[in-house]
Design a protein that fits this description.
Number of strands: 5
Strand content: 25-35%
Structural class: alpha+beta
Number of helices: 3
Distance between the termini: 9 Å
Order of helices and strands: EHHHEEEE
Strand order of the largest sheet: 1-5-2
Length: 113
């Protein structure tokens, strides 16, 4: 049994999100939530909410036991970039790219492949 939760278009760069995702990949959900609660990064707050959503989906839709759940897969993909401009010398402009990402968390009980 596997259940997922997806968050799309988050204002977080994929590289910074992957740093936090690597910390919790493969962990039981209770340990992962504990680690994310005390991690000082912005991505930790966002990933914690997505993980809680995946746990709630597993409990409500599949009737899973929360104590047996662990994070089977977690990945963060790059999404569209918001393009903003700032003024530069001699009437020119520079592009500022505000990165976004898609987050997908899959939790399961580890019984099936």
């Amino acid at each position: 049994m596997q259940t997922n939760a997806t968050l799309r278009g988050v204002r977080l760069s994929a590289q910074k999100g992957r740093l936090v995702a690597d910390l919790i990949r493969g962990m039981p959900v209770d340990k992962a939530l504990n680690l994310l609660a005390f991690c000082p990064k912005k991505g930790a707050r966002i990933l914690k909410k997505v993980l809680e959503s995946a746990i709630a989906n597993a409990e409500h839709n599949e009737g899973a036991d929360i104590d047996e759940l662990k994070i089977t897969t977690i990945y963060i993909d790059k999404a569209t970039t918001l393009k903003r401009f700032t003024a530069r010398a001699k009437g020119r402009g520079n592009v500022i790219g505000k990165q976004t990402c898609h987050i997908r968390v899959v939790v399961g009980d580890g019984n099936d492949k």
